[in-house]
Write a structure and sequence with these properties.
Chain lengths: 155, 184
């Protein structure tokens, strides 16, 4: 029997931690599962600078320092992988995908699922979030766009 | 401590272009935070949306702050930095000697020395907050504060535009789901 492949979109929020706890509780004791932690980050803003002395050029140089935060996020994602290993998941059953996105969070999750054919997606969902008015619901977009996949919602 | 003006017209053009060119509010908020951090040479920036019922501040986009600090707990507009609710900017120039903050101990642990909070208003209502975090004590210049107010107004327009756009798209999707047979 093929391994059950689980995708956990992870943004380091408290509800994501609940989703992680759900995976440990539900799938931790099963041998035949693989967990992929998925973090799609927003790349550093790109700006054009026509010379080296302008305020724009200085800003561009300062922005390059900000990539450090992305490195720290990737390291934090590796720590979550280690945490899963510590909770009984085999090292070869846990991996992470850390990639940049230029579009919506939901689109990145949908594309990743289609690309690597997951069996289960575990989504965290905080009810009543006002930001959903402005950004749209990741949960709704993912659920309506995918088929032949089980979507678990942790609220 | 800094009092010089840092947001000049070139920086302002870059920042406003980042807002105008983005069709995704979350990415726009994140890029805006990065650009403000770079322009003002500060530690971090966050754009919040305000929940009109609970008065809780929810993060729309942020950069420069640790995961631990971001997860410190719910932020309430009435308890975090009070005057923002009254559409005024609040400058906490020294976090260690201020009683205005909801999570002052967390801010000190994060290495935040000063916080500037600017309301994002639309149609005379506060719909969000632009908050900037500096490593050290900070006297932001009046001109930079004015520039941030203008930016906050543009962010407010972008937020409301996106909200309307989302609503229209949802209506379009619902209408698209109606089968022709149901209309006969």
């Amino acid at each position: 029997m093929d391994a059950q492949r689980i995708l956990l979109p992870y943004n380091f929020s408290q509800t994501d931690q609940k989703a992680l706890a759900f995976i440990i509780r539900t799938f931790g004791s099963l041998e035949n599962t693989e967990v992929t932690l998925f973090h799609a980050f927003t790349p550093i803003s790109e700006i054009e600078a026509s010379d080296h002395q302008s305020a724009t050029a200085k800003l561009k140089r300062r922005l390059s320092y900000l990539t450090q935060e992305l490195t720290e996020r990737e390291m934090a994602l590796q720590e979550v992988c280690q945490y899963l290993v510590g909770k009984g998941f085999g090292r070869d059953r846990v991996r992470y995908v850390f990639k940049s996105r230029k579009g919506e969070k939901a689109t990145a999750i949908i594309d990743q699922t289609k690309e690597e054919s997951y069996d289960v997606i575990v989504l965290s969902h905080k009810p009543g979030k006002v930001t959903r008015f402005f950004t749209g619901s990741v949960f709704t977009k993912v659920v309506t766009a995918l088929k032949d996949v089980t979507v678990c919602i942790v609220s | 401590m800094q009092t010089e003006d840092r947001i000049n017209i070139d920086i302002f053009k870059i920042v406003t272009r980042a807002i105008a060119e983005s069709n995704n509010l979350e990415i726009m908020a994140k890029h805006l935070a990065q650009l403000i951090i770079g322009a003002l040479e500060i530690k971090g920036a966050t754009i919040f949306a305000t929940d009109p019922e609970t008065k809780e501040l929810e993060v729309l986009g942020s950069f420069g702050l640790s995961i631990r600090y971001m997860n410190k707990g719910p932020l309430y507009i009435s308890r975090s930095i009070k005057s923002v609710e009254k559409r005024k900017a609040v400058v906490v120039r020294d976090v260690k000697n201020s009683d205005l903050l909801q999570y002052s101990a967390d801010a000190i642990q994060e290495g935040i020395g000063a916080i500037v909070s600017v309301p994002i208003a639309f149609s005379e209502r506060v719909i969000g907050v632009l908050r900037l975090y500096h490593h050290e004590e900070w006297d932001i210049s009046e001109q930079d504060l004015d520039s941030l107010f203008v930016l906050a107004e543009i962010i407010g327009l972008a937020m409301m535009y996106t909200r309307m756009n989302n609503a229209i798209n949802e209506v379009k999707n619902i209408i698209g789901d109606v089968h022709e047979a149901w209309l006969e």
